[in-house]
Amino acid sequence: MNPAQNTAGIYTADRKVLARNSLKDSFARYLTKSAAVLVLLLLGGVIFALIEGSLPAIKQYGFGFITTERWNPVTEIFGAKAPIYGTVVTSLIAMLIAVPVGIGIAVFITELCPRWLKQPISTAIELLAGIPSIIYGIWGLFILAPLLQRYIQPALIATFEGVPVLEGLFSGPPYGIGILTAGLILSIMVLPFITSITRDVFETVPPMLKESAYGLGCTTWEVVRHVVLPYTRTGVIGGMMLGLGRALGETMAVTFVIGNAHKIGSSLLAPGTTISASIANEFTEADGELYTSSLIALGLILFVITFIVLAAARLMLLRLDKKAGK
């Protein structure tokens, strides 16, 4: 075979390889594009189903559906004010407890924990995330609620008696179940997510930055406050938002311990309800079009609340990135 024929053969083989690789690239591109479009179609389908199912309730009540507290299936008077209130308040309680505790655990694991203890604590945190929500609900109903009723709630009522604002928040009979109990259960459930993500982003801080701060005489608290947290604030906020999203949508655990009362009480010890708990409790019993539509409208409201929270978090992260860029 002469050199010209050999060169032509190599050129033909190279063209075949390039064509085959181009075909593979095209297939991979269309496959990934189809997956992305499928996600958008699924999201659009969920939104369409929620809006279509909510139309009878929206036409019947309008904006008053959000501002009405009364929920009476017998007279077909439905209002979402109490479930919205319960959803927001229990989630806020959960975040107020879980965020500082989760960040504290992450700081301990990454900065203070002995090497032999890191893995057991990390494994225990991950195991908490794997426990089904119904188990949390059962534990909260049979273990946590009686403890709160017998010891914690009476102590809170006695401690804050006569204190402005706080007296109203911690007043009334100690039922054990209620808004506060649901918030505590949620804080335990979201704690593993916040802790794990915060720990992971803390470990991305370059050791040289921390060693330089220690070399200048900084304490561990100063290193965490002035080096670790500013470097990882985007990831920490992302973990907080992930935990908040879990708290907003949690159903079974909250249903067990919140009391499932469609009313707004001034006290955190009083029974209440959330959007998810109301849907889970009543959807199988809804026998009329308006009743079913009202429950679907609650789902639409929860979707909107979650979307607003995630959008606000995204905007916050973008602003933080811009400031960091400056």
CATH architecture title of the largest domain: Orthogonal Bundle
Q: Tell me the Rg in angstroms.
A: 27 Å
Biggest beta sheet summary: none
What is the fourth-level CATH superfamily of the largest domain?
MetI-like
Percentage of residues assigned to helices: over 70%
Beta-sheet strand percentage? under 5%
Overall number of structural domains: 2
Order of helices and strands: HHHHHHHHHHHH
InterPro entries: MetI-like (IPR000515), MetI-like_sf (IPR035906), Phosphate_PstC (IPR011864), Phosphate_Transport_Permease (IPR051124)
Pfam families: BPD_transp_1
Subcellular location: Cell inner membrane; Cell membrane
Membrane topology: Multi-pass membrane protein
Describe the structure.
This protein has helices spanning 3-61, 64-67, 81-112, 115-130, 133-159, 166-169, 179-202, 207-215, 220-249, 252-257, 275-282, 289-325. The protein has 326 residues and is an all-alpha fold. The chain folds into 2 domains: 1-61; 64-325, Orthogonal Bundle (MetI-like fold). It is flat, with a radius of gyration of 27 Å. The protein starts with a helix and ends with a helix.
